[in-house]
């Protein structure tokens, strides 16, 4: 799971235009981690 987190962070840095989509993914993962 952490590897995916790092991958998302790197992808966000590489593709800033997808920042909005990553924000939604971040919120989704945050809720999942908080619930879990």
Topology readout:
Layout (H helix, E strand, L loop, with lengths): L1 H13 L4 H17 L1
Overall description:
The chain has helices spanning 2-14, 19-35. The two termini are 12 Å apart. The protein has one domain. The model has no long low-confidence stretch (mean pLDDT 74). The radius of gyration is 10 Å and the shape is flat. It has 36 residues and is mainly alpha-helical.
Secondary structure tally, helices: 2
Give the tally of structural domains. 1
Percent helix range: over 70%
Runs in which pLDDT lies below 50 for 5 or more consecutive residues are: none
Q: H/E order of the elements?
A: HH
Strand content: under 5%
Produce a short descriptive summary.
This protein is mainly alpha-helical. The chain has helices at 2-14, 19-35. The chain is flat.
Keyphrases for this structure?
2 helices, 0% strand, 36 residues, single chain, mainly alpha
């Amino acid at each position: 799971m952490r590897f995916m987190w790092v991958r998302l962070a790197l992808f966000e840095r590489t593709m800033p235009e997808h920042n909005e989509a990553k924000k939604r993914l971040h919120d989704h993962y945050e809720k999942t981690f908080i619930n879990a």
